[in-house]
Amino acid sequence: MRQDRYALITGATGGLGRVLAARLAQDGWSLALAGRDESRLRDVYPDCTHPLLVGDVSTPEGARSVLQQCQAHYGQPPDALAHCVGSVLVVPLHRTSHEQYRACMRANLDSAFHTLAAWVDALRAAKRPGAAVLVSSAAARIGTPNHEAVAAAKAGLEGLVRAAAATYAAAGIRINAVAPGLMDTPAAAGLIASLSAREAVARQYPLPGIGTPQELAELMAWMLSPAAARVTGQVWSLDAGFSTIRPLVR
Ligand SMILES: NC(=O)c1ccc[n+]([C@@H]2O[C@H](COP(=O)([O-])OP(=O)(O)OC[C@H]3O[C@@H](n4cnc5c(N)ncnc54)[C@H](OP(=O)(O)O)[C@@H]3O)[C@@H](O)[C@H]2O)c1
Description:
Elements: E1 6-10, H1 15-26, E2 30-35, H2 38-44, E3 52-54, H3 60-74, E4 80-83, H4 98-126, E5 130-135, H5 148-168, E6 173-180, H6 195-202, H7 213-224, E7 235-238
Helix pairs in contact: 1-7, 3-4, 4-5
């Protein structure tokens, strides 16, 4: 058993999860990398020295199992949690099937709720402080056409972050979120598949362009670091001004 300061990354197989794993390792974090498919985890991290943990954190049992695997490897709960599980769904409300809606809620809200619950429970039992960062979306912060299901799920995640930050502040547990605009990862691949689609998407942002997971990982690494020791209950946008400013239209 090892007694390192370590971070649990859920959704570690995803575009953001992979980039964040590399970024946190640069900062000296030991890691626990969780995904729901063992072979995908092994494909993404072929020579990894960090433990690869398998579990579906969108269920209470799956989330608890991932935390138990963390404890079994490191002998203590994760000091940091980066919850990168989620999805992007761009379908108008009247065309969203019940299955699409439920899958979107499972990936974006259920997973956040159960993972955060299992993590704070483990920290409280061990009487340890900690820091978590979750991932919302610009679509939760400003009305964006055809994003009803994901906006509802991520708005729920933002409420969860603020309430849990209040509940656990006295225990030294910090809980924050980031809210990106569109990022160039597999989740968004279908939306920017052609050059013309990329250009059209890039024009939607006050600072034109398409975000990268590297930019977001930088902010998330800072939120988990001691430099952010007095930051909790926050949702910080990283969306090129999309949700907050309206430049002059010429
Ligand atoms: N990319 C964007 O444009 C964008 C914009 C705004 C917000 N976001 C948010 O950014 C975060 C990271 O997304 P990404 O861009 O890295 O997407 P991604 O590459 O598709 O990765 C998503 C990750 O979530 C996992 N996942 C999806 N549904 C799940 C479920 N029901 N249960 C458990 N795990 C599940 C996937 O696991 P598998 O490998 O097992 O499928 C994968 O590891 C998400 O919260 C997403 O909503 C992304």
